[in-house]
């Protein structure tokens, strides 16, 4: 668990990290360099979940060396499937990271939602649903390793 006290925001008690795959952890179905290692370090503090429609059919193979749960969802109603997934885990204990339109509800309802702008870009709806926006996944994961950065960004 990661506990973060943010004046004027919330005290976060995070148990789960829920991430999209393509556009978030991977580009064109291939996991980005250094991501697996960062996720494995975070897995000592957070239970990691990757939820994806797996557009390229490579998620399970690409994540085989990552300590995480991989949930493949259907191609329809992805946004509601992702929302139901985080609701089942308990939204108060979730940090969610994504970039696509299908991630907006998940980020909005998570205790902490982080949107990314990487090679695929980001949906404006998702940016507006997030608590914070990062330029890439490595920066987002570093925020969780250095929670005072989150405090500095989110405090009132």
Descriptive keywords:
7 helices; 156 residues; 10 strands; 34% helix; globular; 6-stranded parallel sheet; alpha/beta; two-stranded antiparallel sheet; Rossmann fold
- Quick one: how many beta strands? 10
Helix and strand composition category: alpha/beta
Average pLDDT over all residues: 95
Order the strands across the largest sheet as they lie in space.
7-6-3-8-9-10
What's a quick, concise take on this entry?
With about 160 residues, the protein is an alpha/beta fold. It has a single domain (about 1-155), classed as HAD superfamily/HAD-like (Rossmann fold, 3-Layer(aba) Sandwich), CATH 3.40.50.1000. The chain has helices at about 35-40, 60, 80-90, 105-110, 125-130, 135-145, 145-155, and strands at about 1-5, 10-15, 15-20, 25, 30, 45-50, 70, 95-100, 110-115, 130-135.
Write the SSE topology.
Blueprint: E1 2-5, E2 11-14, E3 16-19, E4 26-27, E5 30-31, H1 35-42, E6 47-52, H2 59-62, E7 69-72, H3 78-89, E8 94-98, H4 104-109, E9 112-116, H5 124-129, E10 132-134, H6 137-145, H7 147-154
Parallel strand pairs: 3-6, 3-8, 6-7, 8-9, 9-10
Antiparallel strand pairs: 1-2, 4-5
Question: Can you walk through the features of this model?
Answer:
By secondary structure, the chain is of the alpha/beta class. 34% of the residues lie in helices and 25% in strands. The chain has a single domain, classed as Rossmann fold. The protein has seven helices and ten strands. A hairpin with a 2-residue loop joins β4 and β5. The two termini are 24 Å apart. The relative contact order is 0.20. The model has no long low-confidence stretch (mean pLDDT 95).
């Amino acid at each position: 668990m990661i506990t973060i006290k943010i004046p004027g925001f919330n005290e976060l008690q995070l148990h789960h990290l829920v991430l999209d795959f393509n556009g978030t952890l991977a580009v064109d179905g291939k996991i980005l360099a250094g991501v697996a290692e960062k996720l494995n370090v975070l897995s000592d503090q957070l239970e990691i979940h990757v939820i994806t429609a797996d557009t390229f059919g490579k998620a399970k193979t690409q994540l085989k060396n990552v300590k995480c749960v991989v949930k493949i969802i259907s191609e329809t109603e992805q946004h509601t499937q992702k929302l139901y997934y985080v609701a089942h885990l308990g939204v108060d204990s979730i940090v969610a990271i994504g970039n696509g339109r299908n991630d907006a509800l998940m980020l909005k309802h998570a205790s902490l939602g982080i949107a990314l702008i990487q090679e695929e870009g980001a949906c404006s709806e998702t940016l507006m649903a997030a608590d914070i926006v990062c330029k890439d996944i490595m920066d987002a994961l570093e925020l969780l390793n250095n929670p005072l950065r989150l405090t500095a960004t989110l405090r009132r």
